Amino acid sequence: MSRVVCLTDRGTTQDRMFNKKRFFLILLIVVPVTLLLPVSYHTTIAPFFGARRDIGTREMVALRTVPHPQERNKEHCTNNVYVRPPPWSHSLPTIYVITPTYTRVVQKADLTRMSNTLLHVANLHWIVVEDADNKTSLVGNLLNSTGLNYTHLNVHVVEKITSRGSRQRNVALKWLRDTFRLNDSHHGVVFFGDDDNTYSLQLFDEMRYTEKVSVWPVGFTGAMRYQSIKVNALGKVYGWETRYAGTRPFAIDMAGFAVNLKLLLSKSKANFRVYNVGTGQQETRFLQDLVTINDLEPKADNCTKVLVWHTRTTKPPAFKSQGDPNIET
Ligand code: UDP
Ligand code: MN
After folding, report:
1. pLDDT tens sequence across 79-120
2. Domains in the chain: how many in total?
3. Ligand 1, from 130, 164, 315: best to mutate by most atoms within 8 Å of Cβ?
């Protein structure tokens, strides 16, 4: 009887040992898997891990205050589509994108497409200037709902002018000059992005560290498949590849360059001409006040890559019905 008991005791101890081992083994598998799951499912938080090396105190606060995905559903995303830009970094220069815009049937579609692109870019501030007497709720609500950093301005040009969008660009330049001082430690770059163009994300990487003026090719402009820039073996710009007004000192499209913010602040008079400026002359007249050809910094692999396209949104065919006038399109 006692022998049986003895055997049973030994058996129980072995069982316990086995159970303990099994428990730790399961723990070893379950814990890392549980920790990894949220990272793979909610990819929007993955960039925070990547950016951690780079970010300062403000971003660490932002990282801690990121709401739970279920809470985010209500405010910042539609079901599982996240609409928040990456966290702000103190170490990156800010990209100021200046966009003139005017009321037309495809305006909301164009601005929506553009905002979806900009949402991918860190440290980006969108300056949207409406060609209107008053700021419209369509643009205001759209900007507000994107979660982008933005400034909403307006100025109306009544006359029919060839320099479309330039009065608006000047208002944005004034805002920058009123907001920043030349001796601020703040670093930035200014890019003129029309609301109907198409922008690759790489373009923003290319322009971010512009020292004076950086340049790159633009697709579908200058009467060419792409309008480009002539760059010599030493990486210096020496001319233009265009079929349109090639003798201009800077034969380049509005979407083909970016300017260092400090340079713009130091040249306080540099603005776009609104009146008495021929078609295609705005860019060259503006750049002539800022730099010489020797100062240009070719980007996009020495201007061999097209990262921006001068696309145009076609007007939809005439509507057979206007539908409910309260529904915004
Ligand atoms: N634009 C504007 N007011 C106008 C016409 C155009 O503010 O009366 C804006 C437009 O939304 C765009 C930029 O100016 O962001 C350039 O206009 P558009 O795209 O029509 O010019 P294009 O493509 O012909 O250069
Ligand atoms: Mn356009």
Report:
1. 778 778 999 999 999 999 999 999 999 999 999 999 999 999
2. 2
3. 164
Distance 162 CA to ligand 2 centre (A): 13
Which protein residues touch ligand 1 with a CB less than 6 Å away?
99-102, 131, 164-165, 168, 194-196, 312
pLDDT tens, residue by residue, 200-240: 999 999 999 999 999 999 999 989 999 999 999 999 999 99
CA distances for 322 relative to 113, 328, 329, angstroms: 23, 11, 11
Ligand nearest to the CA of 198: 2
* Given the residues 59, 130, 283, 297, the one annotated as active site: 283
Give the domain extent around 118: 89-310
DSSP string, 252-270: --GGGEEEEHHHHHHSTT-
Residue that wins the pLDDT comparison between 31 and 48: 31
Residue 190: inside a domain = yes
What does the CA dihedral 220, 224, 226, 231 come to, rounded to 10 degrees?
Answer: -150
* 13 and 129 part of one domain: no
What is the Cα–Cα distance from 221 to 196, expressed in whole angstroms? 13
